[in-house]
Inverse folding.
């Protein structure tokens, strides 16, 4: 008994995964090597993020949580770097960073290197600081909100916080004008709402992985988060901040890969219906 | 160990701690602030301790795998132990913020972690192609919504067809948010029930293994 030869519909309905992976690889590599320069429209969420930072008055202190792990770095770091550029361009804004992820301090250093912080003339300990990884996630958020000095006495390098002028008069959530979160974890992104927004009404900007955005939207709609964005929107903030980087470069890749996915969905459905109407079973 | 030490004392500790936190949050924020701060710091220290404890546990478990030459496992266990020792030594001797430790992290774990996460894109492409088929009304709906969201998230398409932004905005604001709210409210009610049951000793999962008699309730 010989097997029935495969029709064109059969072949199109079940394209081998190796071909799909190959096509995706081409769609990633080609726009990276030869940028197309597709337009990058600014979404309302990213504009709100940018405007919130722009509206910070001089003398404001901002808390940033570097709460992502290495896997999320390619998506979240470009957004974080562009936001730091915006913060550091503003006069007299102090930035206190902490990490609710153990890899946070290392990834923060990496981001600072990418940012080339020297060009902003900002000084560590005076204009910005990293107070280290604080274990416990929501417990850490709540404790830091109550008192930083009671929670940790050193920065991420182990130097006493009392040696840094930036920490003078900064101890609890009430001293911060804004909270910014970059995370790959739902515990962190939702935890800040519970521990800081609910208790202290600290305005909160939240940057998460694209797949996490739907879970965070109810908080934004309820006014508990000013803006929820995904790291994939980094190109938009880079354009607003006028600091093009990895985000703008990846916008072309995102467009081309998404077009590939749509094309594959169309092909799959044409094959499905083609087979169905030509008498084959699907 | 007596049932009092095994069950009653832990439940009493949980109950007292929970009452202190609830009182501080809702009734006496100023009066109980220092007590709660102290308890939270204990929590942070305990969490940090569990990280170290986890490393020791991993060392013991994989050490046994190597010493027993567990088939198909021991080379991986040995490799894990080598990396564990290497990171620990460099971190302790040179410092966790040293150039050497950063180099080690960036050129090994970070690169691998980013690669593994990025590889999801390949599986998702294959999954989208195979799953989004209009086989019935439900899957047709999923297909339409999926294509709209895909198209909207392609920056160039969103710029070319602004209607996609409006459609995605409606999808996010109405069906997605309302469904997500339902899930969140349900989970929150469940968490409250679980919290209350734990407080009064009806939920004993946190006590570890107990006999049926010890579980009670």
């Amino acid at each position: 008994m010989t097997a029935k030869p495969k029709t064109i519909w059969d072949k199109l309905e079940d394209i081998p995964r190796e071909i799909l992976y190959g096509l995706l690889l081409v769609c990633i590599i080609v726009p990276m090597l030869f940028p197309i320069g597709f337009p990058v429209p600014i979404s309302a969420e990213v504009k709100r993020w940018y405007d919130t930072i722009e509206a910070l008055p001089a003398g404001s202190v901002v808390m940033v949580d570097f709460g992502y792990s290495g896997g999320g770095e390619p998506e979240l770091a470009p957004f974080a770097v562009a936001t730091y550029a915006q913060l550091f361009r503003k006069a007299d804004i102090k930035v206190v960073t902490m990490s609710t992820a153990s890899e946070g301090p290392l990834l923060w250093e990496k981001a600072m290197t990418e940012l080339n912080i020297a060009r902003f003339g900002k000084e560590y300990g005076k204009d910005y600081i990293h107070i280290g990884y604080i274990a416990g996630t929501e417990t850490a958020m709540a404790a830091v909100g109550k008192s930083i000095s009671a929670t940790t006495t050193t920065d991420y390098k182990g130097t006493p916080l009392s040696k840094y002028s930036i920490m003078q008069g900064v101890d609890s959530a009430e001293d911060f004008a804004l909270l910014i979160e970059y995370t790959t974890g739902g515990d962190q992104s939702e935890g800040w709402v519970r521990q800081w927004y609910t208790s202290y009404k600290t305005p909160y900007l939240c940057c998460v992985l694209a797949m996490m955005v739907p879970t965070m939207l109810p908080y934004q709609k309820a006014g508990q988060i000013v803006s929820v964005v995904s790291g994939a929107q980094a190109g938009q903030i880079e354009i607003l901040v006028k600091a093009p980087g990895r985000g703008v470069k990846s916008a072309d890749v995102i467009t081309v890969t998404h077009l590939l996915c749509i094309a594959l969905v169309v092909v799959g459905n044409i094959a499905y219906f083609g087979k169905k109407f030509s008498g084959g079973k699907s | 160990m007596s049932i009092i030490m095994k069950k009653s004392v832990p439940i009493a500790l949980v109950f007292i701690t929970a009452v202190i936190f609830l009182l501080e949050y809702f009734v006496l924020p100023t009066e109980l602030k220092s007590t709660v701060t102290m308890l939270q710091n204990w929590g942070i220290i305990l969490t940090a301790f569990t990280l170290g404890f986890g490393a020791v546990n991993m060392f013991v478990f994989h050490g046994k795998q190597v010493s027993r030459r567990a088939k198909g496992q021991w080379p991986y266990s040995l490799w894990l132990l080598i990396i564990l020792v290497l990171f620990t030594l460099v971190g302790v001797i040179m410092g966790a913020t040293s150039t050497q430790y950063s180099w080690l992290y960036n050129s090994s774990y970070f690169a691998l972690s980013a690669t593994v996460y990025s590889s999801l894109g390949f599986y998702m492409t294959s999954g989208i192609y195979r799953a989004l088929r209009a086989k019935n009304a439900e899957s047709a709906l999923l297909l339409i919504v999926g294509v709209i969201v895909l198209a909207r998230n392609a920056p160039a398409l969103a710029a070319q067809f602004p209607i996609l932004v409006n459609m995605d905005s409606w999808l996010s604001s109405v069906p997605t948010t309302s469904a997500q709210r339902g899930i969140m409210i349900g989970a929150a009610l469940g968490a409250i029930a679980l919290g209350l049951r734990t407080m009064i000793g009806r939920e004993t999962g946190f006590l570890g293994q107990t006999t049926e008699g010890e579980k009670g309730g």
Remarks:
- The mean pLDDT of chain B is 90.
